[in-house]
Design goal:
This protein is globular. The strands form 6 sheets. The chain has a 5-stranded mixed sheet with strand order 7-8-1-10-13, covered by helices on one side. A two-stranded antiparallel ribbon has the order 2-9. Strands 3-6 form a two-stranded antiparallel sheet. Helix 2 crosses helix 4. The longest helix has 21 residues. By secondary structure, the protein is an alpha+beta fold. 37% of the residues lie in helices and 25% in strands.
Length: 215
């Protein structure tokens, strides 16, 4: 994004929110993808045994619900969970046409650099890539939450002020409007990449922790 700013480009950054991503993994699809990445038949049998035969129940006080079989998802808290999820979504970045899509476990984002005068074409490209991404997620039984999906436009003040129109994206029946700050993998990013918000929040957290220690 910094390189894009140096080239007088604005970058549209879309942070996707996958609802209950680890709990939504389809076991049949996952086992097929393990086979596609070269897992041996013995390893696939082991993973099938690892995933199958699980159940859950809810306890509130002394009251216990009936047991329900788990047909989706991977056990959370295990080191295997992010590994298996990574394999499950390893072909997701290939679905977009114009944007680049990067993923880190269940955090995925689209980004596309564009010239200010190309804003209308950019809106069409982004909406097309969002549609393809949502279609892939639907086919893989993953749910994107459009209400928590964020759009950030990154550029210099002059470039953002010179945008000829407001960029609003239609996505899953919702309108994505640009925000001023987003949080991605623990970092607060603002529209100028100044990191002022991140430093301010980090400093505030450190001061609170130091006050607790000094008591």
């Amino acid at each position: 994004m910094l390189e894009a700013m140096d080239k007088k480009h604005v970058t549209a950054l879309i942070l996707l929110d996958l609802s209950k991503a680890f709990d939504s993994i389809n076991h049949t699809i996952l086992l097929h993808k393990l086979k596609c990445v070269g897992a041996s038949p013995l390893a696939i049998q082991w993973f099938e045994s690892y995933l199958s035969g699980r159940s859950q129940y809810v306890r509130i006080g002394s009251t216990v619900s009936s047991t329900s079989a788990l047909t989706h998802g991977v056990p959370q808290g295990s080191i295997l969970s992010p590994f298996l999820f990574g394999i499950y979504v390893n072909d997701l970045p290939a679905v977009t046409v114009s944007s680049d899509l990067d993923s880190y476990v269940d955090d995925s984002k689209l980004h596309l650099a564009f010239l200010v005068e190309d804003v209308q074409q950019t809106i069409a490209k982004l909406e097309n890539d969002l549609y393809k991404t949502a279609k892939w997620c639907l086919e893989h039984q993953l749910l994107i939450n459009p209400d928590k999906t964020k759009l950030l436009l990154v550029g210099t003040r002059s470039m953002l002020q010179n945008l000829p129109t407001q960029i609003n994206l239609n996505f899953l029946g919702k309108t994505l409007k640009p925000v001023s700050v987003v949080k991605d993998l623990g970092m607060h990013l603002d529209l100028h990449l100044s990191y002022d918000d991140h430093i301010s929040k980090l400093s505030s957290t450190c001061i609170n922790k130091l006050c607790q220690i000094s008591r």
